[in-house]
């Protein structure tokens, strides 16, 4: 990542995780998967949906989380997640959620991944070149995303698009 004085990565569950924020006093760090780990729709149906109710959130906190190594899972911190509204289109994000695994929001991706180069994903086993954010897009049937060139698309993609890449994020306890 460019612009940071530190660079911290770790490997867990076959994924490379990159630290976006480290708070040694609180004993936690925010990590995001360097690579796209899966291609999935934001939601299984083309309907009005928010992060709180979408099928991708359920998958991340269910099957994906369950697939992680036990020692790694024991360090993942469940957090209350507030997704800011999409101010550009005046679209509500919905209610707060409690998540262990989540997607970055529009605000977080711009705060922690400041340049297009920082936002470009690795591809791992998946060839997709764009990835979902948890923020709503230009309406309630779209979710914001990041294009392969690093451009943040606040207008988003249709929630039922099955080609969306997934780059999970999580908070991890720094205590061994």
Description:
With about 180 residues, the chain is α+β, with helices and mostly antiparallel strands. It has one domain (about 10-175). Helix content is about 15%, strand content about 30%. It contains four helices and 13 strands. It has helices at about 55-65, 70-75, 105-110, 115-120; strands spanning about 10, 15-25, 30-35, 40, 75, 80, 95-100, 100, 130-135, 140-145, 150-160, 165, 170-175. Strands 1, 2, 3, 5, 8 and 13 form a six-stranded antiparallel beta sheet that branches. A three-stranded antiparallel beta sheet has the order 9-10-11. The longest helix has 13 residues, at about 55-65. It is globular. The two termini are about 25 Å apart.
What's the layout of helices and strands?
Layout: E1 9-12, E2 15-23, E3 28-33, E4 38-39, H1 55-67, H2 70-73, E5 76-77, E6 79-81, E7 97-99, E8 101-102, H3 106-112, H4 116-119, E9 131-136, E10 142-146, E11 152-158, E12 165-166, E13 169-173
Antiparallel strand pairs: 1-2, 2-3, 3-13, 4-12, 5-13, 6-7, 8-13, 9-10, 10-11
Brief descriptors of the model:
176 residues, alpha+beta, three-stranded antiparallel sheet, 32% strand
Number of strands: 13
What's the structural domain tally? 1
Portion in beta strands: 25-35%
Overall geometric form: globular
Number of helices: 4
Question: Which blocks of ≥5 consecutive residues have pLDDT under 50?
Answer: 1-6
